Amino acid sequence: MTRTVKIFDTTLRDGTQGEGVSLSVEDKLKIAQKLDALGVTYIEGGWPGSNNKDIEFFVRVKELELQHAKVTAFGSTRRKDSQAAQDPNLNRILEVGVSVATIFGKSWDFHVHTAIQTTLEENLAMIYDSVHYLKQNGLEVIYDAEHFFDGYKNNPDYALATIRKAEEAGADWVVLCDTNGGTLPHEITEIVSVVRQNLKAPIGIHAHNDCELGVANSLAAVMAGATQVQGTINGYGERCGNANLVSIIPNLQLKLKYEVISEEQIATLTSVARYVSEIANMHMPVNQPYVGAAAFAHKGGIHVSAILRNSSTYEHLKPELVGNKQRVLVSELAGQSNLVFKAQEMGLEFDTSNQQTKQLIEQIKEMEHQGYQFEGADATLELLIRNAYGQLEEIFTLESFKIMVAKNLNQPVISEAIVKIKVHGETCYNAAEGNGPVNALDNALRKSLMAYYPGIQNVHLSDYKVRVLDEKDATAGKVRVLIESSDFQNNWSTVGVSENIIEASWQALADSIRYALLNQTRSDNKPEEQKERLGLVNH
Amino acid sequence: MTRTVKIFDTTLRDGTQGEGVSLSVEDKLKIAQKLDALGVTYIEGGWPGSNNKDIEFFVRVKELELQHAKVTAFGSTRRKDSQAAQDPNLNRILEVGVSVATIFGKSWDFHVHTAIQTTLEENLAMIYDSVHYLKQNGLEVIYDAEHFFDGYKNNPDYALATIRKAEEAGADWVVLCDTNGGTLPHEITEIVSVVRQNLKAPIGIHAHNDCELGVANSLAAVMAGATQVQGTINGYGERCGNANLVSIIPNLQLKLKYEVISEEQIATLTSVARYVSEIANMHMPVNQPYVGAAAFAHKGGIHVSAILRNSSTYEHLKPELVGNKQRVLVSELAGQSNLVFKAQEMGLEFDTSNQQTKQLIEQIKEMEHQGYQFEGADATLELLIRNAYGQLEEIFTLESFKIMVAKNLNQPVISEAIVKIKVHGETCYNAAEGNGPVNALDNALRKSLMAYYPGIQNVHLSDYKVRVLDEKDATAGKVRVLIESSDFQNNWSTVGVSENIIEASWQALADSIRYALLNQTRSDNKPEEQKERLGLVNH
Hints:
Chains A, B: It is an enzyme of class 2 (transferase). Chains A, B: Residues 5-267 form the Pyruvate carboxyltransferase domain. Chains A, B: Pathway: Amino-acid biosynthesis; L-isoleucine biosynthesis; 2-oxobutanoate from pyruvate: step 1/3. The structure is a homodimer of 539-residue chains. Chain A has three domains: 6-261, Aldolase class I (TIM Barrel), CATH 3.20.20.70; 297-388, no CATH class; 396-533, 2-Layer Sandwich (Double Stranded RNA Binding Domain). In chain A, 40% of the residues lie in helices and 19% in strands. The first copy, chain A, is built from 19 helices and 16 strands. Chain A has helices at residues 25-38, 52-61, 88-95, 109-114, 120-136, 148-154, 156-168, 185-198, 214-223, 245-255, 263-266, 269-279, 301-309, 336-345, 355-370, 378-388, 437-450, 501-522, 527-533, and strands at residues 6-9, 42-46, 70-76, 100-106, 140-146, 173-177, 203-206, 228-231, 297-298, 327-328, 396-408, 414-423, 426-434, 460-468, 479-486, 491-498. In chain A, the strands form four sheets. Chain A has an eight-stranded parallel barrel with strand order 1-2-3-4-5-6-7-8, surrounded by seven helices. In chain A, strands 11-12-13 form a three-stranded antiparallel sheet, covered by helices on one side. In chain A, strands 14-15-16 form a three-stranded antiparallel sheet. The two termini of chain A are 45 Å apart. At the A-B interface, helix 4, helix 9, helix 10, strand 9 and helix 13 of A face helix 4, helix 9, helix 10, helix 13 and strand 9 of B.
């Protein structure tokens, strides 16, 4: 039995069916390059028979000269009662010039009757003719058996007959699709085993996540003999998404010891997942398995002191294997051992007995008492630690700010901000509008800093959260604002607390910008890297 | 073999270890009521030995008189080389007055040496003594075998010895924990089967999601003989989260036909999941299995036309079974039936075929499209329904508002608001200060209304939540504000959506006040009750 599994990525086709996912041709080309470097075997680029954006992708992807991956185009079997050679959908696949075609056909008798409304015999002919036509034209053909598991449960003989037809016509792969995502792992195991006994062609699995079992179903299929896994980066896809390759790859390779991609490639998994989420403009959940910011984060004090002794006590895997890293969240629960760990991460000697450290711990305790929370605000914590050790350059200081928000009946609301800061000894005084008061503040602050730090234009706020702390009298109570920022390479989070939502937002905003510019200062001795980070060179 | 599975919810304990999850005692009490109504068997409320907020929860939860669920307190086995009866942690569990204790002990020899640094023998004694002491004191005892699967893989005999000790001491349940979340489903199947043969006590499973297999591992354990499943709502929890009960319950009950909760209870699953996400102020992923807004949404053209013919063609389950809805045919709103139900609650005849109703449904659809959500905003929904039926007296109308927030170096921040409204045909123009801009708005609005409705002084805002909707460009994106209000007898919630946080807050604030005064109008014919509600009589 082979221990090699091929990865078929459909982020660019099935992934774009996900709510909120929308990719331009440029986006798709960028992602294709990343997928190629990651080491996937197939990249499904789109459905040329269904839209022109996809055709443009197939034209332009050839210029990229991918190293490893084969690009494949998707389509359906020929229409009922017609000729494969005259089918526009199949011919479109030939026209775009791919070496691999992926076509889907019906396995479920109910669907043959209900969705395409033809006879069971004609459906078999549609499958045979379509695969045969593409093979005759020299393509590698992957046959996707849509609704295979539902079809098998309803009429096993017919479902098996459909994939035997595809095999007979020369299909290089038969991929069993759980299109509705409702099949359970033990059913997958059983059905894939039966197919294994009935087919010579290699088998693939295409799972969806409707029961939160997309990953488990993919593993079950591989363990029952499938050697191709279809899925998407971060599990993007229709409804609850496709099976998530970002979890499947390390499960197969690092846990089950299949050969999937190289050690070096799997170490880029975290950066690939985050890159694709940036390009797709999708929020990356902090708790995403393997690659999320919290995937190897530790909060409880008991855990942390054990982790410091031996990291495998509370980690199922070394985070570096997938390019992620351990993180310790500072919270009241955990205390001093967490801070020690944080400082070590920053390369600071952290002597718990010296005066600065004691003061810092007191300060953090006092701030937590006031409602600050550092577990989701690493950047603010780093600024505090650096400040305590005299390692924080004062980038700007606030003199004053003022915001105004005005609403008149039936008019759009107006938000303006005036910000006065000192930068390198000079006073900067600027005003700006915004979609809301915090956006106006942000815009006015940037206006002043732009002259000194043009790279700030690459820094953007990616999330903003507000929580009322004292619930007795809500809007008179304290609020905590968390801001997440990004410069396309790194993400960082900052926190502010005040009775006033605007002041709390200002604190988190100012820390975010300080942190971005601190990193800029720190990379002064690496001018090229700095330029690149700040977007001053073109790629 | 029993077909009944008990659900053990640890949202309030393990769930709060998740990054970004932070629950006040009030929040925990609200969630406990929802969990009770959902039909879980155990609610783990916290770790009384570790923090005082948890102790307050255990005191106050008794006043709720839960119908179904048993509340349990968490703790560890006694310290090494000491007496169980003198252990502060165990005694704290007895003091908080729960009928069920959940205590965890070590199963992994490596952890015994590394984390607690004692002998294997002493660890067995710690388990025996602790369970025995709690049993002697009349409690039901659930023993959580921490790291059981890792322990078993390293030293099966010792791992089995630890749980046999717990059983021998009288533990009512032995729960096998995959604490690091690194175990795969086929390993779970194998190890649970072995335990099943070695133990008489009923077995539970406690899984984590580090390999995106938390749900699959829970199912595998149940199929191998476990009859209790521990997990959290929406899978909140440390690192990648705990096993997600919101997916496990329907998988067990609707797919595998175990008896878990009633049909009526499972139909509230979507609303429970969304309620908890609102309370915890966590973003609810649209693609969350079973309960996400996109879980039964259909985008592809082929799917949609097939769905129109027969919905089971592209749906693995009827969404109504879990209280969710398809998003092609019906409005965005949580189904027309909810509207009918709401209207009936208000004593309105609700004819779904008349023109007003159709317009109302269109309006709600459009608002939901803009980002409104009525799940946690019943009062706003009631105002909309009353308005559509011409049963909403215009209490006040806005002419204009303006707010200013100013901060000068080392000075406290100042917030002022000017509000101009029309009340009973008269223009009222007032200014006020506040602790923040929304509080200033609230104060200025109240100043104007006070002369007409003195009872308004008893209305206060009890919670205020902000969520960014469009995560692409946070502060420039849309925000949804939820306000919860109270007049000491009733609570109600309102919602506002805008690109501008101040305007969104105004909408929710204005609705809150309108709703309070609407109730006042309605109780005109019951002057005593009205006086009492509005605080005009002293208690």
